[in-house]
Amino acid sequence: MTDASDRVRPQRIRITKLQETQVSDLVALEKACTAMYHDLGFDAAEVPPRTWNDIANLPRHHNVFVAEADHEVAGYLAWRDESPGVAYLEELSVHPQFQRFGVGTRLLQKFEEDALGCGLNDAIARMFEKATWAQGFYAHHGYTQLGEQASRKVLAWREERSGGRPLTRPGEVLIWKSFRAQ
C-alpha cells in the first residue's frame, strides 16, 4: 500500500455504474491492485489482473459500480445474485493511491443498498488470508468467516456450490455478512 503521507484525501467520491470510458482506467487499477498480491508472494497465475475485455464484460452477469475520487477512477465493485438468494461479491478493488480514504467503504455501502433493493439479505465473498488489509476492512464492516453460524441461505449456497468439493483455493477463505438488523 502507498504511504499515506504521499497521498491527498479526495474531496468528493462519486459512485456510478460502470461506463465504457472507465474501463481503461480500471485495467490500470487492476494492475496496481494485483501488484499488492504479487508483493505477498502470489504469482500472476494465482492473482491475474483483469483485462479490458474482462472488465467490459462484467456487467453481463454482475452489477458493477465504479468509484471516482475527484473525477479520477479510484475503485470498483462487481456483484451478482446467486441461488438461493444471496449476494455474491465477486470483486472489490481500490487503487492503492486511494485506499484508507473511504472509497472501499462507499463501494461496499452501495453494494449492500443494491443487494437489499433486490431483496437479498446475505452477502458472501472470497478473501486471501495473507491480505491483512482485506481482513481488517471486511471485519470492520461486519463480515466474518463462513461457518455453521451463517444464515440458512448462506449455508444452502455453500452446499449448492460445493458438491462435496472445496470452494476455495489454498490460502483463501469465504466470508459472509447478514444485512438483517441484528
Automatic annotation (TrEMBL):
GO terms for molecular function: acyltransferase activity, transferring groups other than amino-acyl groups. Residues 13-172 form the N-acetyltransferase domain. Transmembrane segments: none annotated. Keywords: Acyltransferase, Transferase. It comes from the Bacteria. This is N-acetyltransferase. The lineage of its organism: Bacteria, Pseudomonadati, Myxococcota, Polyangia, Polyangiales.
